[in-house]
Amino acid sequence: MAHIKFEESSSETICSTEFRNSSCHHASKYMQKENMDTYLTKKIITNLITRSVTAAHEAAKYLPRTTSQEFLTITSKGPYRETVTIYDKVLEKKILENLTLLNKDDSYLGEETGHYNGNSKVKWIIDPIDGTLNFARRIPAYSISIAAEVDGKVVAGTVYDPSHQDTFTAGLGLGARCNGYKIKSSSTFNLSDAVVSTGFSKNPEIRRKQAQIISKLLTEVQDIRSCGSAALDLCWLAAGKLDAYYEHDLCYWDLAAGSLIASEAGADIIIQGDFVIGAAPAISKKLNILLNHS
């Protein structure tokens, strides 16, 4: 199992506040098991995984059965007009209804709903549709992402890919799985052999910087992809389909579950504010240096 490493970053984006508020900035959040509360056991983590899987699967039943765009009401939000549909809100509502059946005191942070501070040790981090633009355009690359924190540490995560009916899960110290089968990250040794995925900010200024990075990276790797769902990218990294993934300007709900899944599958994960780098261990250091000097 690789480690998730958090590094300080001065970057500020529309989602950076969420990282600070969620304490995502601190390395103890995922991996320092020696400091974990005795409350946290394998049974509890497994229960949180089961609850998140059930919530994701039940919510997915409310996705439209048709692929016709006429059934979608597409709007936008935020200063950069991010795509949002009625299903983003419907699914988040259904997920919260399911997750709070057993304990209404759980806290949560949802992309559509915002914060709720309950009295229990558990906090749910929810992205009802990660890759909404793909969903709205009928491109089969979007996911439902649910992570569970206990005392400020992400300990369980589920990412469900409805298009391919793939369910990715992980528990802290318990490894990562896809549809119940253990998965392992890539063993790629050379950066020149790596297939790397990335995503793009809606902020024009950040996009210009991203274009500069890609122009330098493209000659150093085998090829570059862009899936459009950070959670899926991290899961495909976990499953060895990708050798590396990086992206700027992410929100906490984009990566909370996927980062744990990738790390538990053996990938190195480095989080610098709202910038995440995930890679096969053998190429992680070189990729990190290349991305941070581009």
- CATH topology label of the largest domain: Fructose-1,6-Bisphosphatase, Chain A, domain 1
Total beta strand runs: 16
What is the terminal-to-terminal distance? 29 Å
Would you tell me the overall average pLDDT? 86
Instruction: Tell me the overall shape.
Output: globular
**How many discrete domains?**
2
How big a fraction of the residues is strand? 25-35%
How does this structure look, described?
This protein is of the alpha+beta class and 294 residues long. The protein folds into 2 domains: 42-182, Fructose-1,6-Bisphosphatase, subunit A, domain 1 (Fructose-1,6-Bisphosphatase, Chain A, domain 1); 185-293, D-Maltodextrin-Binding Protein, domain 2 (3-Layer(aba) Sandwich). It contains 8 helices and 16 strands. It has helices at residues 16-21, 42-60, 86-99, 132-136, 204-217, 230-238, 252-264, 281-292, and strands at 4-7, 74-77, 82-85, 107-110, 114-116, 122-130, 143-150, 153-161, 166-171, 175-178, 181-182, 195-198, 223-225, 244-247, 268-272, 275-279. An 8-stranded mixed sheet has the order 5-4-6-7-8-9-10-11, sandwiched between helices. Helix 5 links the parallel strand 12 (195-198) and strand 13 (223-225). Helix 2 packs antiparallel against helix 3 and helix 6 (230-238) runs parallel beside helix 7. It is globular, with a radius of gyration of 18 Å. 47% of the residues are buried.
